[in-house]
Amino acid sequence: MEQIDDIDLQLLNILHDNSKYTVKELAKMVNLSPSPVFERIKRLENNGYIKKYIALLDAEKLNRGFIVFCNIKLKQHDRNIGNQFVSDIMKIEEVVECYNISGDYDFLMKVSAKDMKHYQDFVFNKLGSVESIGSTQSTFVMSEIKNMYG
Amino acid sequence: MEQIDDIDLQLLNILHDNSKYTVKELAKMVNLSPSPVFERIKRLENNGYIKKYIALLDAEKLNRGFIVFCNIKLKQHDRNIGNQFVSDIMKIEEVVECYNISGDYDFLMKVSAKDMKHYQDFVFNKLGSVESIGSTQSTFVMSEIKNMYG
DNA sequence: TTCTAAATTAGAATAAAATTCTTTAAATAC
DNA sequence: GTATTTAAAGAATTTTATTCTAATTTAGAA
């Protein structure tokens, strides 16, 4: 695996914050000409340092500004139950992130809803029909303080 | 505030997953010519539906694949302590997300480190010097199941 | 140090994409 | 039904991405 240098790291940090700079602009920022910057970015893409480029959307405007962290305990801890849970959760659009975690609970999900009413509906109707779930515990987000991706 | 239609929504969903499509490609996907697609995207940007465009990086390759959710209780619940905490946390690069939450703890942080050793160093040396923190509780991520941004 | 080879860069040339503009069509109001 | 507004298509233009070649730098060996 190729090694990356300081200029690569600069480019990654810049693009992580704003991927719309032109190569000419990037070149000026890192004191190079456009060609090597273009080649460096292609190399970083091909070597997997850059996974993809995405647009960040305004959750509030799209009626998804109500964030809840939802802890999940499975009914039992066998592979089938676990696989079933993962498979079910992947289909639920309100679940934007999900992690298998240490501690009292098995999974931590980040859920994105319009409001409390929507979240309640999500818990009753969506989670309610996921057979593998034993219990849940909701932690509500009152405000977002920091988000390096937002 | 302008209203968005189904095609706008399609464009948002596509760009949220991959912002590198050309307008020509997008036009084909939504069965329009490039011009109206271009104008729609500009409108979505100007109206704030699209906040920004970013590159997603490979955390593992950048030595940041060890994820921990860290719950925080403040020493006291007055405005000064709270503001001091927020100000301190914004400067710590390992903290990639932070939320003010309901429940037993005051804040939930997502922390990104190289490994357990790095995380330990983060807790001792970085969090350890944030005066406003009363107590912490760490939940370790064993695996990422779903991430609509990753 | 000096030579050689490999890698990197700069700058020009080309291809492709974004962006603008004008015309046409469609939808809505009157 | 006509007028008016809005949205779309297609062509023209500008900008950017991408490729190519030559020059420079770097690293290693003699």
TrEMBL record, chains A, B:
CDD domains: HTH_ARSR. GO terms for biological process: regulation of DNA-templated transcription; response to amino acid. Pfam families: AsnC_trans_reg, HTH_24. Residues 4-67 form the HTH asnC-type domain. The keyword DNA-binding applies. The keyword Thylakoid does not apply. GO terms for cellular component: cytosol. SMART domains: HTH_ASNC. Keywords: DNA-binding, Transcription, Transcription regulation. GO terms for molecular function: sequence-specific DNA binding. This is Leucine-responsive regulatory protein. The lineage of its organism: Bacteria, Pseudomonadati, Bacteroidota, Flavobacteriia, Flavobacteriales.
